[in-house]
Structures are given as structure tokens and as C-alpha cells.
Write a structure and sequence with these properties.
177 residues, 2 strands
């Protein structure tokens, strides 16, 4: 049984003729000393454990602080990467939009060239047709002169183009060249 402070305060020693019994006082003091020694050892053990727990808590708090810093840094990096990706995507979209505009402009330019060429070609064909319709006899004279000079009518030459209408076969041959 352990001694409580009340036990120590209320202990009474039997009296003998010469006072307290020395053996009983000695036994009590030994008991108090033994319990005090136990309590001191227990107190030291608790202090040691407490110090160790404080060191562990400090280490864990330091690790927690490091983790917090790492998480904050990771969040910052992730946000930065997201922003960089957003900016890069924006640039890609702008570049694609510019390319699309350039392609549309080129397409419009090519269509305009095609339409101009068609109109010029139609005008040229109309002019040739008109010239053929207005001078039908000149072609016959050139053919006759050519036959007299050496042989048959000249086909595909400049005189033919201006003076005589071309057959479908001539047009096809010219297109193939």
C-alpha cells in the first residue's frame, strides 16, 4: 500500500516509556524513503518520456511545416502550370485563327483570280468569235494561198486561230498541249 500525504500527516506512533518505539519509526521512515525513491524514479521516467514526446512533437511539427511548404509550393507550381497551359492554348488558338484568316484570304484571292481569268478568257473567246464572224473570207484566202505555196491548209497556226473557227478536235488537242 502506498503512502498518501494524509497517511503521513495522521500517522501515530505508540508511546513507550522512553517515547516512540524506534523500530516502528525506523520502519515507517524506510517505507517513506522507499516510496519516495519509487516516486522520484517514476517522476524521472515521466520527465524523460515527456522530453522524448516533446522532441517527437517538434520533429512532427517540423515535418508538418515542411509538408505544408511542399503543398503550397506544389499548388503554386500547379497553378503556374495551369496558367502556362492556358496561355499556350490561347496562343495556339490565336495562331490557328490567324492561319485560318490567312487561308480564307488566300482562298478569296484565288477565287478572285479564277473569276478574273474566266472573264478574261470568255472575253478573249468572244473576241475571237467576233473576229471570226466578221472576217469569214480572209481565212479562205489564206488557205488557198497556203495550198498554192506548198501543200495543204496550215492547222494550229496563228493564221488559223484568227481566221478559221476551230473544230472540237482542235480545241481538245490545244487543251491537251
Amino acid at each position: 500500500m502506498r503512502l498518501s500525504p494524509l497517511d503521513i500527516q495522521h500517522i501515530e506512533f505508540e508511546r513507550s516509556v522512553s517515547g516512540y518505539r524506534p523500530a516502528q519509526v525506523r520502519a515507517f521512515l524506510e517505507r517513506v524513503a522507499a516510496e519516495r525513491e519509487e516516486l522520484l524514479k517514476e517522476l524521472q521516467n515521466l520527465r524523460d518520456r515527456s522530453a522524448e514526446q516533446r522532441r517527437r512533437i517538434e520533429a512532427l511539427e517540423a515535418a508538418e511545416a515542411d509538408l505544408r511548404h511542399a503543398v503550397v509550393a506544389a499548388e503554386r507550381i500547379a497553378n503556374q502550370m495551369r496558367e502556362n497551359a492556358r496561355q499556350e492554348a490561347k496562343l495556339i488558338v490565336q495562331e490557328a485563327e490567324g492561319e485560318r484568316r490567312a487561308q480564307h484570304a488566300e482562298l478569296a484571292r484565288l477565287r478572285e483570280l479564277r473569276d478574273r481569268f474566266r472573264e478574261q478568257f470568255r472575253g478573249m473567246l468572244r473576241a475571237y468569235e467576233a473576229s471570226l464572224d466578221t472576217n469569214p473570207s480572209d481565212g479562205d484566202a489564206a488557205d488557198a494561198e497556203s495550198e498554192r505555196a506548198g501543200g495543204g491548209p496550215i492547222r494550229g497556226g496563228a493564221a488559223d486561230d484568227a481566221d478559221e473557227p476551230l473544230s472540237e478536235q482542235d480545241l481538245h488537242d490545244d487543251a491537251a498541249r
